[in-house]
Amino acid sequence: MHVDEFLDPKILIVSGKGGVGKTTVAAALALVAARHGRKVCMAEIDRKGSLPKLFGGGEVTYEPRELSPGVWGLNIIPEDALAEYLRVQYHMSRISRVFRSTHFVDYITTAAPGLKDILVLGKIWYLEQDRDHGGGAHGFDTIIVDAPAAGHMATFLKAPQGLADAVRVGPVRRQSEWLDEMLTDPKRSRVHLVTLPEEMPVGETLETSTVLENDLGISQGPVFANAVYSRLLTDEETDEFEAIAADGKIDELCDVAKTAGIKLDNDDLDALQGYAHFLKVRRGIQSDHLKKLRRGTTQPVMELPFLFSAGLALPDIDTLADVIEEQMESL
Amino acid sequence: MSATHRVNPITEIVDHKEIVVCAGSGGVGKTTTAAAIALQAALDGKKVAVLTIDPAKRLAASLGLKELTNEPSKVAKRKFTTAGLEMNGELWALMLDTKTTFDEVVTRYAPGPEQAERILENRFYRNISSTLSGTQEYMAMEKLYELYAGSDYDIIVIDTPPTRNALDFLDAPRRLTDFFESRVLRWFLMPYMKAGGGIFKVANVAATTFLRVVKRIIGGDVLEDTAEFFTSLEGMYDGFKERAREVSALLQSDATSFVIVTSPGEDSVMEATFFAARLNEAGLPFGALIVNRVHPRLGDGVDVKPRQLVKLEKLDGQGRLLAKLIDNEEAFMRVVRLEEKNLDALARKIPKHRWIRVPYLEQEAVDFQGLSQIANHLFEA
Mutating which of A262, A264, A282 best tests the B interface, going by the most B Cβ atoms within 10 A? Predict the structure, then answer.
């Protein structure tokens, strides 16, 4: 698949269970899009996420800010979204201050669940439509949404349908229909689920995927399986090494090392064997879950490597973007 | 004091405490840790209840939780025998059901059955358990208190909800009672609050304008539901507050111990540090830190220069094999060093004699054998 085809829907929604590296994957997708000349907006939802740290610090607020060339970030806070909505739709900015100074949004969203989600989706709609609300249009080509954790995902995306059911007439009804159209049109929105090759995340991902497909009719793209131990060593190589050790021929390996000027003592050899074994065992567990994931989903699975790095930073995101582009071609 | 032998912090907690709260950020193995602690305590002869929030399906199945509800059920003895474990006590398990727990709380504190009924049927109330943040945390605390006060367990181990913030549940009872009591809300909803027979209209211009806008956006019935909910709650606030105070006192007492669960990743280490500080501030007893999923350190790192590695790669067969082994070892050592750096930062905040490290295990802890393997690490001297 060509990158342009992959980036055809303007809105890419990235979701997954907490701790699976959702933001990292969203950032890598953003880099892919930016590399291909798109102006990208990464939207976090109502939280202080790890996005700024990935891009070297600062804060991400409701007002989009350029984080790295071509990649912008914003934090969609429901209170701010409500204020913008009231300002744009009803020309009321004074009253919106009252909303923010009280817990009003909390009360009202409890009374009318899904309203918070609607406000967030409404902001995404504004970004997609790219209307000028006074601050100038942004002209984003791609909007990557770092969506709520998978458990809340279905509720989040179902909110417009729910609101349309509850409100029979008037502007709000019309607006909730617009949002629903935005989400269910495969040319406009697509969801990517992120998971880890582990028991709980895979189970939850498959459940969410089924709900998206059967209940919500929202288009999905490849599922990302994150932090897969890469094949620095194949199982066969590990076995070969273990056989050499079992035959008592480890000295031969030490001699080979010596010709390259490397001195290996017994501790070194133990470490080499230990990590080879560790990799094999962990990957064994991971591949069981990857199999389950592939069997359970109708989507292609993209494996992203475990990063053996000294701390997650932009170069690592770059590496992931490379891997994604590579796998995109074979889709 | 040099001759005193080191006591394992988890053993100490299980021997002396009645409540163990496992807390930490999401995805660090909190539920598994809670289950492993509970299992070991039960194997050793105690009557144990473990309150889980959202267990993995296979773990829930091994605990017999598939068919379970909000009330504790005893895990059948044969399940342990099958797993080759000797059970000397009792293990009871339950899974928190926020909605049911909340219903029970309402029924308990409502002045009469009619008022309880009115609240339970209110739409605003029905949405609370699924949408209002803090509800799950509050109900976990309620359930804990109920288990503690109403039964004879030797020890109760609880898992905490996967909040964005590991310490949200500490504030949840207070936040929720504040929410119910909000004066600002009352002021706004005044025109909707029923006084006597009809709707009481006050000449409150700001509130009325405000309500007009809200009504236009979300509809009047939503406001009526909200107002009705808060009206029906009248007279129940003292009960809520009293209970929140009791739960809070229980958590601060000698009977309780908090176990912080973390992974060696930077984010969870930061969260653990922050959480330890908060416990301290709030006067809550910290018991142990469990560091899960640690990449093992095997050796001090092979001393190889890049050009030597290139040379080795060029040698066929065994040379290339060796080069790949070294590459693999170097990759893991980078991770090990990073994790050690993160953990060193943590050691400056939480003394190491309170730590237990649990390495990656060769099998996943989704059954009693797996749990007991983890327990072996946790309880090892």
Answer: A262
